[in-house]
Write the structure tokens for this entry.
Amino acid sequence: MSKRKKAAVDPAVRADALRDQIRRHEHAYFVLDAPEVSDSEYDALMLELRALEDERPDLVTADSPTQRVGGEASDQFAKVRHRSPMLSLQNAFDESEIRAFDKRVRAAVGDQVVYCAELKIDGLAMSLTYSRGRLQRAATRGDGTTGEDVTANVRTIRSVPLTITPASGLPDLFEVRGEVYFPIAGFEKLNREMEAAGKPRFVNPRNTAAGSVRQIDPNVTASRDLQTFMYTLDPAGPANSQWDVLNTLESMGFRVNKNRRRLHSIDDVIEYHAEWHRRRHELEYEIDGMVVKVDSFPQQLELGFVSRSPRWAIAFKYAPEKAETEVEEIACYVGRTGVLTPVAHVKPVVVGGVTIRNVTMHNEAQVNEKGVYVGARVVIHRAGDVIPEIVSVKDPQPGWRMPAKCPVCGGEVVREEPYIAHRCINPFCGAQRLERLRHFAAVLDIEGLGYATLTQVIDRGMVEDPSDLFGLTTDQIKELEGFADRSAQNLVDRIAAAKHPELGRFLFALGIPQVGGATADLLAGEFGSVERVRDAGEESLRAVEGVGPSMAHEVFAYFHGPGAELVVRLLGAGVVPKEAEAIGEGPFTGKTFVFTGTLETMSRPDAEAMVRKLGGKAAGSVSAKTDYVVAGPGAGSKLEKAQKLKVSVLDEDQFKALLPK
């Protein structure tokens, strides 16, 4: 009896079957943390699929597991407007603040409130757009309205499904939002590899996750083993609560944090928060608190929003952790204006999962107020769970003094009254030059001009001041370490694109003493062009609402000193700041408004722009020249000053009533 010939397997059918198997195993491993097969069995399936697709390229699909890694490297990210704003949360740091939140909620919707409590992951907020079940786009949070398209990189994260079966009731196009984070074990492994390669360690998992998602090469992102937790669905479809949304996301194959709970009282919320504060180091990821949301969507709708934050949710943060260590050295670093900043170098100590080696002390007075000295035993915490700060000193000893000479150039260091800071007065100080260039590049968003690149162009004599940046050529940049033909051309293009900045940004980028971004915008709005700012006398500058005598003197001195030469060189290099939009004529002509507190139906910048469009001025501080102060919830000292000066105070509705219909 002859053997029956084995039927040939259709390659397309086999490829589909392999893709289904691999997706199932990826979901079990990366989402459920419950692998069903060994690594070698998984690798064998992937190898077979790759071989099939290599032999038959027509079988490759965009959502194939083989397509997660690879693709052409990108050196920039397109801007993406979110379907709806990715909101920020207000914070509560103690029991009294979370009880106050509960009181506000119950006053608005009654006592029948259920809260959904979720751990607050210390990661990078991300939105995923799906079209008919396929991943179409991934974007960072950005400013909440517009983020960056990082689809190529996020496709490499194995817990992000490339294709799903949408839940019943969802439209063809919807967004899923959540957090991308770096597991602690993976972060520690990466740092061991960095040390072995003689490279600096990364600071913390959160920043490293953000940097990993924004890598130019998706293969770098893929090598980092990032993870995700998803928690928002937009639109929510038939879901009627946050709890329903989490269950829906889980059913569609997204990774959802299992450490969540529905709670029926604020006492339960406080207890659950305390439980995870005790247990936070059991987790394989970092958390900085708990997100507490009113569970019911109808109640969320009733509560609404305040500015860019929902009234129905709050971040119940953990107090920063503390640790004791020893000060090994107090060194001074020189900024762009020559100001010396003391930094305490301490014996490395872990605070809240982050290794602390340096603590900024700001000025001589702060060092001595705390009594910090070399050899001192100090207690450190991370303010806001981010910035290291010395909170106490054992046996404090005041008496530390700033050096008389600049630690970089050897120039004279002086303290100019009435300022508390000490400053190197050598205008040719190398540290100041580097910091001024970095400030200029950062304000004008010239990506790629970091400290490493700027140090090289300074050391090679290519650049002395910001105007020289616009003369750099591709051939010059190719000589620098880390650059090739394409990356050099990209940097030249980005520098050229910065030749037409907004006037306010240009003034801020110049680094005029005392002039920050807000003041620069005030000057731009008042004078309209760099020439008119340059030609303004001190009296005219002082007349600008929000610009005091000291600031006016600094601006005048800048444009009548060495700063004037830099402006001429920048204009000669082809930099042409856009003239600011002239203040319009209208019902607010001659009137000055100051906004304080939170506006509920518009952002403060939008309100200020509206005032200027209607002929008025929007100032940052209250004076006798102020006509109206618009005060919302949270108004503070500006409202008090307005009341003392008997300035008219409006609420948001009264302000809107003044607007033309």
Remarks:
- Residues 8 and 14 are 10 Å apart (CA to CA).
- The domain at 592-658 is CATH 3.40.50.10190 (Rossmann fold).
